[in-house]
Design brief:
284 residues, alpha+beta, three-stranded antiparallel beta sheet
């Protein structure tokens, strides 16, 4: 096989074919890694991998994180978080309706994530797409006064915020215990982060986990964040991924936010596994 790359949009996204991630040589991996940094979303088609191979490929990018929702982790492979509306013998096979709001994975962690690697095993015949928005491109398009205003601001991120604001309002969402919320208290991150590999400045706020901008009043923070969120999802910063079975998609959480589209209904199966890579370059 010969690795082939096709750019998906001017701002972000690349499709790679002609590789088997379970048997990559160093040159092939380097090409994937470079594309990850350059295009932020990398779609690798036609992969047939085991959970162990999924985790092994992901570890080539860095140390893997373990999600706080322990019941949704794959038995024997805790680095794999199960996102699924599938039920077998009365037992849920993952968390249904996950991520159906704009967010970046695990920004509520003290050390945030570098990226995520999602493997699609079963997908609806229509619907269930994932939307991606490029936070470096949207930062670049801000006015200079707005960039200056945001340059020294700090955002508070909280795992509870996504559940209270979005998730629990979606029918079929499984409850989350106070014990889980207590294990992830609020954290602070700069509103603008410098990507450690590309050196691009990125907006590091998202509707899912960002509660407020610390230095502003609540009303001021709501106004600024509302403006930024509307700006960040303009079409020119946007890629919509239509999943196929056996897609392996990796994305850069340092320069993106994303949203799962819940338009397929409970009668359609969407069954996926995800790993999340720790950002070893993040300030602790």
């Amino acid at each position: 096989m010969t690795l082939s790359l096709r750019q998906m949009t001017p701002s972000l996204g690349a499709e790679i074919t002609g590789v088997d991630v379970a048997n990559l040589d160093n040159q092939e991996f380097d090409a994937i890694y470079d594309s990850f940094n350059q295009h932020s979303v990398v779609v690798i088609r036609d992969q047939n991998i085991t959970p162990e191979q999924h985790a092994d490929f992901s570890r080539r990018f860095g140390k893997l994180m373990v999600h706080v929702l322990k019941d949704d982790l794959l038995e024997g492979q805790p680095e794999i978080y199960r996102l699924s509306n599938k039920i077998e013998n009365g037992v849920p096979q993952g968390r249904p309706n996950a991520g159906q709001y704009w967010h970046s994975d695990l920004t509520y962690e003290e050390v945030p994530s570098k990226g995520s690697v999602m493997y699609a095993m079963e997908v609806p015949d229509a619907g269930g797409d994932t939307l991606f928005a490029h936070t470096a491109a949207s930062y670049d398009a801000l006015s200079e006064p707005m960039k200056a205003f945001l340059s020294d601001k700090t955002a508070i991120h909280d795992f509870r915020h996504a559940y209270e604001t979005f998730s629990k309002r979606i029918p079929g969402t499984m409850p989350i215990s106070e014990e889980v919320f207590a294990a992830r208290p609020p954290v602070e991150h700069p509103v603008i982060r410098i990507h450690p590999e590309t050196q691009r400045q990125c907006l590091f706020v998202n509707p899912g986990f960002t509660v407020r901008i610390k230095e502003l009043s609540y009303d001021e923070s709501d106004a600024i964040l509302g403006y930024l969120y509307g700006h960040m999802v303009k079409p020119q910063f946007f890629y919509r991924h239509n999943w196929r079975a056996n897609d392996l998609v990796l994305w850069d959480n340092r320069s993106l936010m994303h949203c799962a589209v819940g338009d397929y209904g409970p009668e359609k199966t969407r069954h996926m596994h995800r790993t999340t890579i720790m950002d070893s370059d993040a300030k602790k």
